[in-house]
Amino acid sequence: MRTARLPSPDVLRQVKLIELRTRGLVDSLFTGEYRSVFKGQGMEFSEVREYQPGDEVRAIDWNVTARMGHPYIKRYIEERELTVMLAVDLSGSERFGTVSRFTSELATELSAVLAMAAIRNNDRVGALLFTDRIEHLVRPGKGRRHVLRLVRDLLAWQPDRNGTDIGRATEYLAKLLPHRTIVFIISDFVSPALERPLKQLAQRHDVVAVTIEDPRERVLPDVGLVRFTDPETGGTVDVNTSDRRVRERYDRQVRAERDARTQLFRRLAIDEIAVRTERSYVEPLLKFFRMRMERGVGR
Fold it and tell me: According to the model, what pLDDT value does residue 298 have?
């Protein structure tokens, strides 16, 4: 992995703008939702005190009770600190967009929101930037300056490669993370052989898939003969988009791929946040938090 270059003034301005846009959302919408969903990993002993009416009998400390001659209970507090890891796909297909922004720009702002929500709750947050190799690692840390550095690296990092290998990223994370971690994988998930690496990572960590799509990836427009270039391989193909059969075949293929991805996430019990470049990410994020609260699976 290369070391990060010094950021340009333009990148620093973008970092500030993203902070201003996301800070208000985090403070007004996401902090409480985040805390309700992602609870501490355990309970830490706090104190022993006398039993009071209404206390749970199972909390009684029988050793202290025997010594003192009347009931005492153990009190615990939640171990609040968690680790959040943002695994962000920087492959060529993420540098694509036809409406208001590239998918990579949406990934950066979404990462900033999640990172801000984490540090508001005193959690540690880090980032792994990947293509078909590991491009850059920001180790988990705390505080506003750490998050701004993370956002800066997301904006400024120029990947060496264009391909996608989510399996390599998940294997790296499995070795890197010693304790249970909340892992957001932010990608279009156009990558081969996803099931095994995702399954292995989800066995030890709380994995959330954040899928980013652009409208032109879902619908092939009728604009005549078009030459398409694969952003990852550089290969080109000429397509007659005015041919109805071509558009229908493309539509079937897109639907089949989306359905297969949805079924994969369900089999692996991985939650999905689906966001689009032409829409706000606020509602999908809120929907995810509320769905988790309703299911009561905050970990």
Answer: 43
